[in-house]
Structure formats: structure tokens, C-alpha cells
Protein: Lipoprotein
Organism: Pseudomonas kuykendallii
Amino acid sequence: MRAVLIIAALMLLAGCAGNPETVDPQPRVVRVEVPVPVPCRTKDVAVPSWAAAGLRKSDSLEVKVRALLAERRQRMGYEGELLAANQACR
């Protein structure tokens, strides 16, 4: 019984030695490049006062169309500013 324990202990110690091909003799430094999120630092895009916001039901059709066309141009400019701010954060 004692011989079995000694043989088992020797086998366990032999397993701890490991394979010399897989064990590095010296530690080495490995550089891993990982993207790190960075907060975006752009100015807030101000929301314009829309041209059609002040329209009344009693306004003439011409006034309404002019206001809507002006608001369309405002929205296009506003969207351009938003896209530029978004592109700056990439």
C-alpha cells in the first residue's frame, strides 16, 4: 500500500514538471491593441426657431408656402450641421 502511494506521488510530481516546449523559460511582454472609447468633444448644434412654427390657421396660402419653403432650407442647414458634428466624432 505504501509503495502505491509513493508511485502515485511520483507520478503527480512528474506531471507538474510539464512539457519544456510549452513552458516559456522567461516571461515576455505582449502588446495588445484594443480600441478605447473616447468621449466626443463637439459644440452642441443649436436648434433654430422654425419658420413655420408661428403660422396661424388664418394666414394666406402664400404666407404658409413661403414659411414652409424657408423651414425646409432651415432643416437642410440644421441636418448639415448635425452630420458635420457627427463626422467630427468618428
